[in-house]
Design a protein that fits this description.
The structure is a single chain. By secondary structure, the protein is an alpha+beta fold. The protein has one helix spanning about 40-50; strands spanning about 15-20, 35, 55-60. A three-stranded antiparallel beta sheet has the order 2-1-3, covered by helices on one side. The radius of gyration is 12 Å and the shape is globular. The two termini are about 15 Å apart.
Length: about 70
């Protein structure tokens, strides 16, 4: 498996978390996009999605599968 990198702009740290979310105005309820987050950027990315009321779940990257 390749090294997973944080999705926060300019960050090159290894990801520890996967934020699975969707934009209900654009995506079907079962569709999920995935952002990756290091420890330092997890809260920032969760707050960004929460401020937009995008449904999300946060899971450890170890729980990601090929389908996610």
């Amino acid at each position: 498996m390749n090294r997973l990198i944080c999705s926060s702009k300019g960050c090159r740290e290894s990801a520890a978390w996967a934020l699975r979310w969707n934009n209900p105005k654009l995506h079907a309820p079962e569709r999920r996009k995935t952002w990756l987050a290091c420890e330092a950027h997890r809260a920032h990315l969760e707050n960004f999605l929460g401020a937009r009321s995008f449904p999300r779940e946060t899971v450890p990257v170890e729980e990601l599968t090929e389908e996610t």
